[in-house]
C-alpha cells in the first residue's frame, strides 16, 4: 500500500469526507487517492479559504479538517488559515509537498524550510515519508484532536506519496481500523492529583468553599467547555449554584441566551459585564484558555479556575484556587459541594443577570441620532436575520466592526451555531466558514455577515461558493471603508486614506459568478431580501448599505 493510499484510507476511516485547498502538481497523487476513497476535494481560490472551511467542518463534525496546498507559495499563503486554526482551536491537518534537504542543491525555487516554518503555528510539524507514515499519521490525528484541538502540518517530498509503506498490508489494515491511540491522561485524572495524594479533591473542596461563601459570584465560561463535551454538566452546575453566568465570544450558545442566569457575552461591547465582574467578590472561570479574550480582568475578586487542561487563563489573574481536570466531573463535584441554601442570603442571581442583559441591550440599541435615510443601522441587520431564520440556524461572522455588534445581537440557545474567528481574528473567515458549515450541516439554515473589505479580500471564492451551489444567505455590510481602524484614525486626527476605498456593485460582482443578489438600503428592503434569499435554495448575496456612523454612537466603542 503506497503512502497516498494509506493516508486516504486512514482519513476516510476517521470520518473525513472533504479536503480543501488550492493544489499543485506535487500533491495530485494524494488528491487522487483521497477521491478514490470517498473524500471529495474542494478547490478554493485562496488557500486560506480552504483552511477556514476545513476548520468549520472540523468543529461541526468532530472529525479532522483536511487542507492540501502546493509547496512554496501554497505553504506561505495558507499560514493565516492555519494560524486561525491554532488560536481558534480547530483540528486541521495541512498536507503539502516540499523539497528534500540537500547541502548540494543549487535550485532554491519555491523552497522554504516548511517544517520549521510551521512549528510556531501548529501543535506538530513534521515530514511525512513512506517510512514513517504508519506511525506519524495516527500521531498527527491524535495530536490535532486531543486536548485543546489545533492544526498539524505534514510536509512530504512528492515522490514519497507513491512509495510503498514498508509495513505489511495486514498491519496497515489493523492501524486503519484501530485509529489513533487516545492520549495518556495525567495521573489521577480527572483532578490531576499524583497517585496517593488526593490534592485534586482538596482543590475541589477549596473551590466549592469559595463558591459557597461568595455573595457576588460571577461564572465566566470559555471554549474549554466545548472541547470537554461538558455542556450538560455546565448547565446543571449553573442551575445548582444560581449565580449569573457569562460567556466568551468562542463560547456563545453554550449557555442559552434566554437562560434566566445568562448575563451576556464578555469580550467586546460589554461595559455592564465588566462592571459586574469588577463588583464580584468571586469569579468562577470555567474552560478559559487565554486565546478568546482581549481585555485582562482588572477587578479584585478571588478567582477560582476550573481548567480542563491545567494552566490558568492569562486574562484572569491572580488565581486563588486552580483545579485542573475533566470538566464533566469537575463541574458536578463543585456544584455538589455547595449544599442548597448555603450561599449567603441576598447573593447575586437571576435579578443581577437580567439587569446586566438589559443594560447591554440598551447600550447596543439603535441610537436616537440614527436617520434611516443614511442607511441601515448595523444592529438592525442582525435583528432582521435573527428574526427570519430558525433557532438552530448557523451564523458565521467575518472580522470587522460588524463582529463587535454580532456577539451581543445574535441571540442563540444552541451550541456550535455562532462561528467566528476571535482567537486569531482573520478577515475572510465569514464566507469560508459558512461554506464549511453548510457542507457539514446541509439540513441547517446558514447565514453569514461579512464586511465589504473582507469580501474584496477573498472575492475570488465567490466562484467556490457558486460552484458548490450552497444555499447560504451572505450579507455584505457596505460602508466603503475598514471601519474599525478608520474610527481610531478619526479619533486620533489622522488621515483615513489608508482605510477608505471606492464603492463596488456587489450584486453585479456576484452575478458575474452566477450568484443572485440585491442591494438594500432600508430595513424593509433588507427584510424582503432575506425572505427571498431563504426561499431561493441557492447562493444569495445581499449588499446592505449601512449608516456606518452608528458604530461611533455605540457607547464604549473601542
CATH class of the largest domain: Alpha Beta
Q: State the major sheet.
A: 6 strands, parallel
Helix content: 25-40%
Beta strand count: 18
Uncertain segments: 185-199
- Give the end-to-end Cα distance, rounded to a whole number of Å: 56 Å
Put simply, the count of helices is: 23
User: Structural class of the helices, strands and pairings?
Assistant: alpha/beta
Quaternary structure of the protein: single chain
- The CATH H-level superfamily of the largest domain is Thiamin diphosphate (ThDP)-binding fold, Pyr/PP domains
- Mean pLDDT figure: 90
Q: What is the 3D shape? A: globular
Number of domains: 3
Describe the protein's architecture and organization.
- The chain has 558 residues and is of the alpha/beta class.
- The chain has three domains: 3-178, Rossmann fold, CATH 3.40.50; 199-357, Rossmann fold (3-Layer(aba) Sandwich), CATH 3.40.50.1220; 365-553, Rossmann fold (3-Layer(aba) Sandwich).
- It has 23 helices and 18 strands.
- The strands form three sheets. It has a six-stranded parallel beta sheet with strand order 2-1-3-4-6-5, with helices on both faces. It has a six-stranded parallel beta sheet with strand order 9-8-7-10-11-12, with helices on both faces. It has a six-stranded parallel beta sheet with strand order 14-13-15-16-18-17, with helices on both faces.
- Helix 12 (271-279) packs antiparallel against helix 14.
- It starts with a helix and ends in a 5-residue tail after the last helix.
